[in-house]
Specification:
Elements: H1 2-17, E1 26-32, H2 42-53, E2 57-58, H3 61-69, E3 78-86, H4 90-102, E4 107-110, H5 112-116, H6 119-129, H7 141-149, E5 153-156, H8 169-187, E6 193-195, H9 206-215, E7 218-220, E8 229-230, E9 236-237, E10 240-241, H10 248-255
Parallel strand pairs: 1-3, 1-10, 2-3, 3-4, 4-5, 6-7
Antiparallel strand pairs: 8-9
Helix pairs in contact: 2-4, 8-9
Length: 261
């Protein structure tokens, strides 16, 4: 009851806050996980993209990343790219067809333990790691290989979706680099993108940021920051949370806030 009340208040607040203003210029990285917690059709996500397209240009995730990393931020354009964490099967079955129909490529950050795990592991992963009460299957390696062959980016998200705090070097290295090595083994190509689980600033310590920065070209958060980067010691590129069944106005609210150039 309390959770539902909070969700309703949040929706009402976003309905009001999104009334004025337009999507700001610059590059926006949106990060989701699925179309919705329940089994929803891909048409919902397709409709959201069609509405975003009226106000901004959809671009490939690697193109957006390169713009940010090289400091080549457009002054007048509104550009939006997408990433998806955890590697749920609906990313392949429902989200991929919509993206491909639009001719854009996204980034998919996967947990290799979720893909490789047995039934009991997957159940525990859903309940304790990503906190879902519903059943969702992970993508298979064959599906992930197909995504990569089509031009989508496959990134690491740790083996077990662990929060990267309070761990020694060996455990951090195992989660971060072990995930990278497993992806590279299965895809037979380098994995240069990493997003840490949960994505807030308190969910990764400096040692974890250092390990990630030593082994990946690009590293990502999931914050609501107005800046392009978080952390001064080992900068990570910021992404903003959304899901495929959000109202356009709710997504628009997170895209209209001015980014700092």
């Amino acid at each position: 009851m309390i959770k539902n009340s909070r969700r309703l208040l949040r929706h009402l607040a976003l309905d009001f806050l999104s009334l004025k203003g337009e999507i700001s210029t610059g590059v926006h990285l949106l990060n989701g996980h699925y179309i919705g917690i329940n089994n929803l059709p891909d048409s919902i996500f397709a409709n959201l993209l069609s509405q975003i397209k009226k106000k901004a240009q959809l671009i490939n995730f690697d193109e957006a990343t390169n713009m940010i990393a090289n400091g080549k931020i457009p002054e007048k354009e509104r550009l939006v790219a997408f990433t998806f964490d955890d590697g749920f099967e609906e990313c392949f079955l429902k989200i991929r067809p919509v993206l491909n129909a639009e001719g854009i490529k996204a980034g998919f950050f996967v947990n290799t333990g979720f893909i490789d795990g047995n039934k009991d592991y997957k159940k525990k992963f859903l309940q304790t790691k990503v906190r879902l009460s519903t059943t969702k299957e992970p993508m298979t390696w064959e599906q992930i290989i197909t995504l990569r062959a089509e031009g989508h980016i496959i990134g690491a998200h740790t083996i077990d979706h662990d929060r990267l705090v309070g761990k020694d070097f060996d455990k951090l290295y195992h989660q971060i680099v072990g995930c990278k090595k497993r992806i590279e083994e299965k895809l037979e190509t380098s994995c240069e993108y990493f997003a840490y689980p949960y994505g807030q600033l308190a969910d990764i310590e400096s040692m974890g940021r250092k390990i990630a920065s030593q082994h990946f070209l690009y590293n990502f958060t999931q914050t609501n920051s107005k800046d392009y980067y978080s952390f001064k010691d080992y900068p990570f590129i910021n992404r903003r949370h959304f899901e495929g069944n959000w109202k356009f106005n709710h997504v628009k609210y997170f895209l209209k806030r001015n980014l700092l150039q």
